Amino acid sequence: MSSKDWLEKDFYAVLGVAKSASSDEIKKAYRKLARELHPDRNPGNREAEERFKAVSEAYGVLSDEKQRKEYDEMRQLFGSGAFRRGSRAGGGSSFDMSDIFGDMAAGNATGDRRFGGAGFSDLFTSIFSGGRGGPSARRGPARGRDVEAEVTLDFRDAVNGATLPLTLRSPGVCDTCHGSGAKPGTQPRTCPVCHGAGVVSSNQGSFSFAEPCRECQGVGTIVDEKCPECHGTGGVTKNRTITVRIPAGVADGQKIRLAGKGEAGDRGGPPGDLYVLVKVKDDALFGRYGDDLTLTVPITFPEAVNGVDLRVPTLNGAVTVRVPAGTPSGRVLRVRGKGVPRRTGTPGDLLVTVDVVVPKDLPESAREALKTYAASAPAAPREHIDRQVGHE
Ligand SMILES: [Zn+2]
Ligand SMILES: [Zn+2]
Fold first, then answer.
1. Which of 72, 92, 146, 178 has the fewest Cβ atoms nearer than 10 Å?
2. Predicted confidence (pLDDT) per residue in 210-229, tens digit
3. Is a pLDDT exceeding 90 seen at residue 309?
């Protein structure tokens, strides 16, 4: 590792701890991340692997008192735009995570490199979703993570709103081994190579180089007999089913935030939020344009000429739509208040498009009548077209 590397990397941000964090806090943050990002739990996930390495590297430096001091001094000496204290000057209690993440996203171009294109801000919002500004982002019991889920609704359920069960998969601690990963009755032992640190350091010139311990894959302990339930990872995916209320009028692609329905917080911290991405199926009859519903109704030429009262369906009962005499094909007639309900104010409208159909086959009597009609009907108003043709 070079000094330049140190300057470019914000190990505190990587671990999601304040610069003033105690060694205990650093250890705890590292353990949690190492467990989540562990290759055994994320097979084939390159991003998790990269993050796992980054987290191990950060811990390697920050867990070593001497290296941490050197690191702090170097960054203080050469300055780092990527790091800033919270607005209230002083100790760690005023530290605001959103400051780090905001800076990372905006300023530190080099910071992204390690993550193969995944933006710093994305990365950290997904890990530390509690860090998004506001007083809740202050240190204290950790807020639970935000959770994302997806639901597909029938067209009419989206318009009218729906209450439905939603099964969420989230990581939890294995009940069989209580997170140790060891078979019940056995204990994980401290890794003999890294002595529990999870990283090994070697000196290269004047700098020390840290990498995740190969023996224990960065966890710090070795499980000889794996827990049969979680296969040694200490974690399992748990399903929980909650009932969610989707408000009336949601549109395809909309994201709904359900406050407090995310993962539970650590040690009494507030829960995260649940974001539900809504997909809406097409309807056989109605289309949708914002808060308006659309419907196309075929009419005959005589109906267009003479006018007609149409009975058309809405989402709550049929209504009569008057097509005035002389209505051209494609005209849109508005039925007020029969569209999508709005949370505030009046609902949208139903837009009925009349479509004059031209029959392909006519019975002989109708064909004769049409000839008679044509003989006395006014010509099509296309003199301007004919005139242009005459000039060419
Ligand atoms: Zn287990
Ligand atoms: Zn080890």
1. 178
2. 788 888 888 788 888 988 98
3. yes
E runs forming strands in the chain = 147-153, 162-173, 189-190, 199-204, 207-212, 221-222, 235-246, 255-258, 274-280, 287-289, 292-299, 308-312, 319-323, 332-335, 350-356
C-alpha 29 to ligand 1 mean position (Å): 21
139-176 pLDDT per residue, tens: 456 787 888 889 999 999 999 889 988 888 777 778 88
| DSSP E strands, 247-392 | 255-258, 274-280, 287-289, 292-299, 308-312, 319-323, 332-335, 350-356
**pTM for this predicted structure:** 0.49
Inter-CA distances, 81 with 10, 107, 142, 148, 287, Å: 10, 7, 26, 32, 51
The string over 276-288, giving b where at least 16 C-beta atoms fall within 10 Å of a residue's C-beta and e elsewhere, is bebebeebeebeb
Ligand nearest the Cα atom of residue 191: 2
- Taking the centre of ligand 2 as the mean of its atom positions, its distance from the CA of residue 85, in whole angstroms, is 34
